[in-house]
Amino acid sequence: MCQAKTVTLWRPTGPQELALVEASGWRSWPPRLLEQPIFYPVLNEDYAIRIARDWNVPASGVGYVTRFEIDAAFVARYPVQPAGGRTILELWVPAEELDEFNRHIVGRIEVVHEFRPQSHAGASL
Predict the structure, then answer these.
(1) Is the entire prediction scored with pTM above 0.85?
(2) pLDDT tens, per residue, the chain with 125 residues
(3) Of 14, 40, 57, 66, which alpha carbon lies 20 to 30 A from 123's?
């Protein structure tokens, strides 16, 4: 049996979104809000850590970094978007395509870091 190739993506998130991911059995991302036309997972862990620590913690008191695998052939349809630097790279998934995106996640979404105020290094889980 041939196994599909996957790509590892990361997603910085706050507690509300993470609760919805948990409610899905750690299998999918929740629908976007009206003011969120794009779902943007990121391509490297360091960038996800910076967002979770520097943006999610001040905004909601805690920031998480999640990691997940997605079918490489499917995700190739989304061009890599530079967001401010050589290693600051995202995929922009239109909100209306998120259900299909979720169907191509391989395995479970997992939390790999948690940040709270005063935890500059973060906790790896």
Answers:
(1) yes
(2) 456 699 999 999 999 999 999 999 999 999 998 889 999 999 999 999 999 999 999 999 999 999 999 999 999 999 999 887 777 899 999 999 999 999 999 999 999 999 999 755 555 55
(3) 40
